[in-house]
Amino acid sequence: MRARFPDFRLGSVLATSFTGTLSERHGDAVERIPTPQRLVDWLAVNGLAVDSCTAAQLDLARELRESIHAAATAAANQDALPASAVHVINDRSAQGRAAAILTPEGKRQWRLSSASCVEDALGVIAADAISIIAGERDGKLALCASPTCQAAFFDTSQSRSRKWCDMNTCGNRQKKARFHANQRKKPRSAE
Ligand SMILES: [Zn+2]
Q1: How many angstroms separate the alpha carbon of residue 105 from the centre of ligand 1?
Q2: What is the mean pLDDT of residues 82-86?
Q3: Distance between CA 61 and CA 69 in Å, rounded?
Q4: Domain boundaries in the chain?
Q5: Rounded to the nearest whole angstrom, what is the distance from the C-alpha of residue 106 to the centroid of ligand 1?
Q6: Contact 178, 171 (CB under 8 A)
Q7: Could you tell me the distance, in angstroms and rounded to a whole number, from the CA of residue 57 to the centre of ligand 1?
């Protein structure tokens, strides 16, 4: 039987879905791509199918992920971008050789230079990160209000007032935490 790994949290923005493969960075961190095969699985559900991945390629992916996280966090805080993170993102973007393909149905697909080229897939993710960090897309980078998460996410809501990276996980967890805190504050006699 195949080992059970943490599920993926998929969002509509490629770069921040990717940074979400490590969640609860400020709490009990959950690594959602713990093995090369799990990166292969994640890329497949994100339209970047590769047929294999080496341990070294997984390392490159995680290095890119943490660089995007660092740069996006700085951008959300309107701080200077960390030079080392920018360097990694640019390297991955420059070394990817994926082509955007228009399907007959009018959808965009990515064509990698070869089926084993994880670097091409990482190039697409790096370019996506560049587009949101550079402010090229309609939306705003923000940080999740959950203290144990603080993930950078891309807020495309009309009011740009989203608080949590993911309503179903961080939003609900915060609501529950607040509920329990309120319960504790009530006097003992009320129990
Ligand atoms: Zn969150």
Answers
A1: 35
A2: 98
A3: 12
A4: 14-139
A5: 33
A6: no
A7: 27
pLDDT of residue 2: 58
pLDDT in tens, 113-144: 988 899 999 999 999 999 999 999 999 999 99
Q: Which fold has domain 14-139?
A: Jann2411-like fold (1.10.3300)
3-class SS letters over 39-107: HHHHHHHCCCCCCCCCHHHHHHHHHHHHHHHHHHHHHHCCCCCCHHHHHHHHHHHHHCCCEEEECCCCC
Instruction: Give the closest residue to 22 by CA, choosing from 69, 85, 88.
Output: 69
Q: For residue 34, which of 66, 62, 67 has the smallest C-alpha distance?
A: 62
Token output for 149: 């998460």
